[in-house]
Amino acid sequence: MAWTKAQVLAWLDEVEPRADGRSHFDWLELPPTASPRPVQDAFHTVARSRHPDLFRTSLSERDFDRLTRMYAKVANAYAELRGPTGAADYLRKRRDSGAPVVTEPAPPPAASPIDPAKAMNARALAFYRRAEGALRTGNRATAVLNIKAAIAADPASALLRAALAELTQP
Amino acid sequence: MSLAVGIDLGTTNSVVAVATPTGVEFALGASGERIHPSVVSYPPDGAVVVGLEGRRLRPDYPAHTIYSAKRLIGQNVRAPLVQLALTGLPFPVEEGPNQQPLIVVGSRRLTVPEVSAQVLGYLKRCAERQLGQQVTDAVITVPANFTDAQRQATREAGRLAGLEVMRLLNEPTAAALAYGFGQHKDETVAVFDFGGGTFDVSLLTVRDEVFEVLATDGDFFLGGDDIDRSIAEFLAAELNRQQRIDPRGDPGLMTRLTIAAEEIKLHLSEATSAEGEIDGLLYQGRALTLPFRLTRAQLEELIRGYVERTIDLTRNVLTAANVSIDSVTEVVCVGGSTRIPLVRQRLAELFQRQPALRINPDEVVAQGAAIQAGSLSGALFHGGGMATRDAVPTAALSPLASGEVPWSRAAAAPVRPILLDVTPATLRISTAGGYSEPILEKNLPTPIERTRVFTTAHDSQTRVVIECGRGEHRKFADNEPLGTLILDELPPRRRGEVRIEVTFRVDPDGILHVRARDADTGIAREASLTILGAPARKAA
Question: Of A13, A146, B64, B108, which residue is 20 to 30 A from B508 by alpha carbon distance?
């Protein structure tokens, strides 16, 4: 059954300040032993009582946004815990990291998605790789020289011009 | 008071409906039609003619009559599939700013949302005339697999038509809502939505008022238009064979053949062969007549590839949802292309059961949208149920307009549906070496928010470029680009020591918002992703 406006506001005041520290089980109001069917039931219970669609006309725009964001965290908890191994996987991850899991381990680093091999010709690529090597050893001046040589070999490559701009900015 | 309507903005046809105390009522056109062609004609006299009347002008003004605009909405005009679709259109399309398609009509350049806004405005007027009240708010349905750009552009069309778009609702979910709302079901339902331009398939559990999408898949470039084009190409080859005339470079001839193709397709859903003559073909000032004969079996050979693709996607959805075929309790057919006997036959073979017959495939989506519009605007009444009832042809006879049924007649406390929809594709960011990492996978419940932590590739890196994409490929370049977020002026630190929190949030309309934050300094950027093909996005 849908909650009243007052119940929703009280829930938001309770969960919002500690949102980052809450586990997926907390969000779904479950004990950490739940099997798949209760996980779905728990999500449906939250949805029936607090789905933002139920409060579109009754809450202020600000409170509606708060509710949507907190509900989105419940949805994420459900997405992580559902399925035959969801809860077990989550518990293992949490045990391994020794702390409440609020984020996942860092995957490979963010960087430019452009594949250099496709963004320039082969001769330029050889210079580009040398520039990368120079950067890894911290030799910025050599890197700049090699990028300039690569540009001479392939003046049309936008990636090379961007790389030069990034390297020569103060 | 003003009304909230549900609109099924289709590739070929559109439907508008409203949830009333006595059931869902469809708004009719001037000739009493429930189904309004999504056609906008701009004849040279400067008029704008929409719907059935607009479609009647198509043979006379092929270059001025825009149809199937939904195939172009929010698309990047350079995409290969779009280029393919453009070859069959009788009206010219140019590349506009941000690679969006611009439709050329005489001396005017129209964006696709401008054309779709004409259809929406027409539907709004139909509803207002019939119901005797102003229509201000709407739920508009979109294919489940529509991208961000397509959703943004559809919203823009609604805004241009003077509508407050309360929600973009996925079409199969709307159909499931119409099928199950108020019926106290406990079922697993497959919705197979094969329309004029798009194909969607969704698997849902329906438990009382909770409609949970388990998985969805589809192809936003697969529909009746492709079948029509196959038949038109067959007719073009016949013309070439019989009379040594290649009509493919002639928009007027191809329009005639495409219109004939659609009629032949509809006929072959009832009969096993179609035979006759196509007249009124004008070629270099000469009138031609093309005799033809096509059997259903021949048609099935022409379209088998398309139909098998829908069946393959349906199998994928069952696998993704981890649902076995025998636990599916109902198959709901949506869209005109599900009337094709080969489609019904293949579906029945796959599911070992006949699809639900009491569903009207042309109206069920608008019906669901009307229920959701009533729910979101707080005007949904739960009494006699939300079954459709026959609409009345004139405003004077509508029980709403005449005051016979007062809006305040709320028989019982309203029970409102809870729709739990999903992300139609994986949303990811680029990482080192041209690869990518998913942030939100396909088929996760929406609205949803998730944060992952990334780090830098180089020492002293003061700038991180976060490229966002949509798709299922590990190589970033193989996915559809969504836009770029740049986090700069970071203090120089060793690589790996920087913690960049990337938060993806998908809102209830299925639109992505991205935020990146340096966990140590608190420097943050909210994305306004520039999506190629979409109209410029306003600050959210």
Answer: A13
Residue B426 in 3-state DSSP? coil
Sheet of B448-454, strand order: B448-454, B500-506, B512-518, B524-526
In contact, B446 and B508? CB cutoff 8 Å: yes
Distance CA B318, CA B290 (A): 45
| Most confident residue range from A72-81, A122-131, A155-164 | A72-81
Which chain A residue's Cα is nearest to B420?
Answer: A47
The answer to whether the Cβ–Cβ distance between A43 and B445 falls below 8 Å is yes
> Which pair of structure tokens corresponds to residue B17?
């409906």
Q: pLDDT by residue (tens digit) across B509-533?
A: 888 889 888 888 877 877 655 454 4
In this complex, the residue of A57, A103, A135 whose CB is nearest that of residue B453 is A103
Determine contact, residues B530/B518, Cβ cutoff 8 Å.
Answer: no
**C-alpha separations of A101 from A33, A77, A91, B441 in Å:** 16, 11, 9, 19
Local confidence band at A96 (pLDDT 50, 70, 90 cut-offs): low
- Report the alpha-carbon distance of residue B75 to residue B90 in Å, rounded: 18
CB contact under 8 A, A43 and B500: no
The token pair at A21 is: 């520290």
Strand partners, B215: B203
Cross-chain Cβ contact B418/A57 below 8 Å: no
DSSP string for residues in B321-357? HT--GGG--EEEEESGGGGSHHHHHHHHHHHTSPPPS
Q: Can you read off the two tokens belonging to residue A153?
A: 């070999």
Supply B454's token pair.
């990334």
Residues in chain B: 540
* Cα(B268)–Cα(B274) distance, integer angstroms: 7
Query: Of B344, B41, B366, whose CA–CA distance to B174 is shortest?
Result: B366
Q: Which two tokens stand for residue B149?
A: 């750009």
10 Å CB burial of residue A137 (0-12, 13-18, 19+) is exposed
